[in-house]
Amino acid sequence: MKRNKWIIALSILLCVFSLTGCAKIVKIGEEEALIGGNENAKLDVAAFWDEQAVPEIEETAVELAELLNDAGGDLAGQEDRGRVTNGASGSLNFAVHAEGEVVEVVNDIKAGYLTVKLDGYEGETVVNVQVGPVFKKSSVRDYLSFINVNDYSDQIEFAQLSQNITAYIYENVIADTDIGSLTGKRIEFYGCFTYENNDKVLITPITFAVK
């Protein structure tokens, strides 16, 4: 094993020399750092989730039933209760809180979801709550005020942040719940959605509780 470590270190040293024309001494155990194996701190969701993300969404969330009732079929007209990303041409995102009954569970596809009948809302807009493991949209990332696209090196890195957020949500908010048993049960959630049309809202939950 010790001999293998020396071989790895020597190989990396030779690569560095061939690329730069000069040698750099690399201690055993530091090879990963040399080749960029360390995780980018800006993509570490756990570092900001409990202290920043969840409190901000909970504190600014509007009641979803109230939002839909007030919208009267025109959610775009409720822009002042959401946040627009990238200026006037960006997406409109809302943070919401709701309670209701699960009337349908769709978990036989990767982008699973629950259809929920909200307390206090009798309108026609369908409310779906994502349960993964694949999540559509980047609603949570785009709603959070402390996340700025200019802080990331490129669109690939910014997209990776959204993927990390939804992976974190699946593992820490959804995965321990028996999704298949939820039909007819009541749930409460906080989450975000991106406005696309008035027929349906697709919510990414950041907290999720079975009542």
Features:
32% helix, disordered N terminus, 26% strand, alpha+beta, globular, single chain, five-stranded mixed beta barrel, 211 residues
Structure, described:
- With 211 residues, the protein is an alpha+beta fold.
- It has six helices and seven strands.
- A five-stranded mixed barrel has the order 3-4-5-7-6.
- β2 (83-84) and β3 form a beta hairpin.
- It is globular.
- Mean pLDDT is 85; it is low at 1-38.
Strand order of the largest sheet: 3-4-5-7-6
Give the uncertain stretches in residue-range form: 1-38
Class from secondary-structure proportions: alpha+beta
**Biggest sheet, open or closed, and with what strands and sense?**
5 strands, mixed, barrel
Note the gap between the termini.
53 Å
Give me the strand/helix succession.
Answer: HHHEHEEEEHHEE
Number of strands: 7
Provide mean pLDDT, rounded: 85
Radius of gyration, whole Å: 22 Å
Shape: globular
Classify the helix fraction into a percent range: 25-40%
Note the beta-strand portion.
Answer: 25-35%
Number of helices: 6
Q: How would you summarize what this structure contains?
A:
This protein is an alpha+beta fold and 211 residues long. It is 32% helix and 26% strand. The chain is globular.
Q: Which helices and strands, and how do they pair?
A:
Layout: H1 2-20, H2 31-34, H3 49-60, E1 62-63, H4 64-71, E2 83-84, E3 92-106, E4 111-118, E5 126-133, H5 139-143, H6 155-174, E6 186-194, E7 200-210
Parallel strand pairs: 1-3, 5-7
Antiparallel strand pairs: 2-3, 3-4, 3-6, 4-5, 6-7
